[in-house]
Structure formats: C-alpha cells, structure tokens
Design goal:
Distance between the termini: 26 Å
Number of domains: 2
Largest sheet: none
CATH class of the largest domain: Mainly Alpha
Helix content: 40-55%
Oligomer: single chain
CATH topology of the largest domain: Fumarate Reductase Iron-sulfur Protein, Chain B, domain 2
C-alpha cells in the first residue's frame, strides 16, 4: 500500500515533495498565506508525515489561488499549485469537499467550463457558478464596468482540439 506522500507524488507527476527543504519561500511569496489554516510549508510537511486527514480536511487546499507564485520562488521547483490541485481532487474523491462557502461550487463550474470548451468562457462560467451557489446578484453591479473596460467579453475562443481536452479529463477521471 502506498503512503500518502507516494500517492501525492505520483499524482503530481513532477518534482517529488521530498526535495522540499522547508525554506518557506513558497509561503513568503503566497498572496493568500495569511488566510490559510496551514502555511504551504506546513502542508508539505504534513504530507511528508502522512497526515492525510489533516491535509484533506484543511481549508488551505481550497484557499490556494493556483497563481504559481510559490513555484517561481521555490529553489527546488516544487509545484505547490499542482499539489493543491491534486489535494483538492483527492478531497472530492473522498467526499470531503470544501469547508469554505461556495469554493467547491466555483471549482466545479471552472472544471465544467474547461471540459466543455477547452478554455474559460467567463460569462458562462459565472452563470454556472451563480446557479450552483444560489448567489445570483451579489456582484452583478461589477459586470457593466468589466465589459466596458474590456476585462470581460461575451465570446471566448474555443479550443480547436476539444477531443484532446476530453481525453485529458477521461485520463484523469474528472467528471
């Protein structure tokens, strides 16, 4: 039977987490570290120590923005953002989900949108998210300004090879 560390490393399919020597540069650069239950360094340490339940039940894995600041700062190029993606998926598969209100619903809308068109269609994704969350009008006043400033468009490009995108979801068992 694989250890939690071996399981995560296999799913990350990159630099193994054992290469982390806990310099904390990932945490120092993280724009949301102050909002996390555990700092990024501690999540790696928990994985290394086999603390599956603590990691998968933590709010930290759902707060990560996947901005990749951590990997750009890491001297060993450990892909913390990818690790967080893996941990979120493991939590979903184990029926744990997110503790933060509507984070899992946003995650599901995002993945559904990618699966459908290969890229993010922001208006469609936001409609999906709003319907899933039931939070229909809380930020609707921002939309006109975003359209006027060119930050949001009605039409998004589609991926030409949608079959490859669907194959990726099939191979990774994302529904």
């Amino acid at each position: 039977m694989k250890t939690f560390l071996e399981e995560v490393n296999k799913k990350i399919n990159g630099v193994p987490l054992q290469r982390c020597y806990h310099c904390r540069k990932c945490t120092a650069g993280c724009p949301v570290a102050s909002h996390m239950e555990y700092n990024l360094n501690k999540v790696v340490r928990l994985i290394q120590n086999g603390k599956r339940d603590e990691v998968l039940n933590s709010s930290t894995i759902w707060i990560c923005l996947s901005c990749e600041t951590c990997i750009t700062r890491c001297p060993n190029q450990i892909d913390i953002a990818r690790m967080m993606d893996v941990l979120r998926q493991m939590a979903i598969e184990e029926g744990i989900g997110a503790h933060e209100k509507n984070v899992l619903k946003f995650h599901e809308a995002f993945l559904s949108n990618i699966k459908m068109g290969g890229r993010i269609n922001e208006p469609l994704m936001m409609v999906q998210y709003k319907l899933k969350s039931g939070d229909l009008f809380s930020d609707i006043g921002m939309a006109p300004g975003m359209f006027l400033k060119g930050k949001l468009s009605l039409l998004s490009p589609r991926t030409k090879d949608i079959k490859s995108v669907k194959d990726i979801f099939e191979k990774t068992k994302h529904s």
